[in-house]
Prior knowledge:
With 415 residues, this protein is of the alpha/beta class.
Amino acid sequence: MTKAYSAFSLLCEGLNQQQGWEPAWRDAAPKRAYDAVIIGGGGHGLATAYYLAKNHKLTDVAVIERGWIGGGNTGRNTTVIRSNYFYPESAAFYDFALSLYEGLSKDLNYNIMFSQRGMWTLAHDRHGMDTLRRSANAMLLNGIDAELYDEAGVRARIPGLNARPRFPIVGGLVQQRGGTARHDAVAWGYARAASALGVDIIQDCEVLGFQIEGGRMRGVETSRGTIRTDRVGMAVAGHSSVVAQKAGVRLPVSSYALQAFVSEPVKPCLDTVVLSPAIGTYVSQSDKGELVMGAGLDLYLSYAQRGSLPWMERAAAGLIDLFPQFSRLRFLRQWAGIVDVVHDSTPIIDATPVPGLWINCGWGTGGFKAIPAGGWCLAHLVATGESHPLARAFGLNRFRTGALIDEAAASGIAH
Ligand SMILES: Cc1cc2nc3c(=O)[nH]c(=O)nc-3n(C[C@H](O)[C@H](O)[C@H](O)COP(=O)(O)OP(=O)(O)OC[C@H]3O[C@@H](n4cnc5c(N)ncnc54)[C@H](O)[C@@H]3O)c2cc1C
């Protein structure tokens, strides 16, 4: 039984010279067979395993990760959490994720450092303001908190904004329940809680192929041997099309590098998340003090996790236009992840043409905020074979019928 984290256990371990802590999760070796295998030890895969065990009592489950857990996009993202979507299907799904985030530290008994510091989107002209007004109306109609402010209202709430920016600030929309969480902690918290319920977390194990017999899923071939199973859930983000192809499944996914940067750490100076779609920059301050910045997708397909200089330059220029006082900060690190983009910027959580293989992908630039709901819905699919009501609109069939949920166009925000 995993020892609970609490103020009392901290005190006891302090007195015990920290000698009594156990590893947070069991680093398991693969067994020959499982009731279900989840490919991908990112947030979505780990959350799927946790909810399979917790909600569906399916505990003979393995999470297969080719590197280390959280080493993919989950550990590379800029950690912004929000549910400011336009269409009712997306709003309901992402707001469910946000509501699970609100109770996640308690549920997992792991501090994910969720900080609801608000998420601002700025407008720099009349058309930008019209877009924000439309977003705010849609959010309120969907039952999601939204507050719209004019320039004075924005400046009163975000101290330090440039008094005379190149692109004038006309107004802003804030979702106060939005914010950030510690990305590694989300992966580690789900891994620990899943492992405590009996799930095997298997790292350094790559899925190389599938065993499909009589047209049905019967197992996975891995770098550490064959694992038999009738149920496979796949949550491998930017590598979805590559892994699905090994089962003969073609996905409408394109993979791009998305990059982020942090500055050297400074004392607390920014207590919210600020996004300017027009300038192409967003920024927040981590608990360590670094300014965390992100920008857009590289404009060409790639599996190279390194990003490119033009976006760095553009993001830095945008940041300095919004907050000139940051101009003397130095970049500390820059990195990239490979994200899985679909035409309508809405995820896919569905069965594939191979019975026994289900997928969760298509998160593009915004799947960290979706992790609890993505895992919840994929677990439902793997356990019951039926789509969860929240994920029914996120099927593969929409690319045939044309019933797309075009959030990139509707919300006017990057995915
Ligand atoms: C720079 C950047 C900034 C971002 N900012 C935000 C943000 O602010 N807010 C937000 O909501 N989202 C953001 N995102 C998107 C978000 O990070 C992803 O959508 C989310 O983390 C996807 O989680 P996942 O579990 O599906 O994927 P991942 O965390 O990538 O996990 C997939 C795992 O599958 C493994 N894998 C791949 N192939 C195999 C194989 N053959 N065998 C076994 N394992 C395999 C990989 O090693 C990886 O660990 C950002 C992404 C990036 C790159």
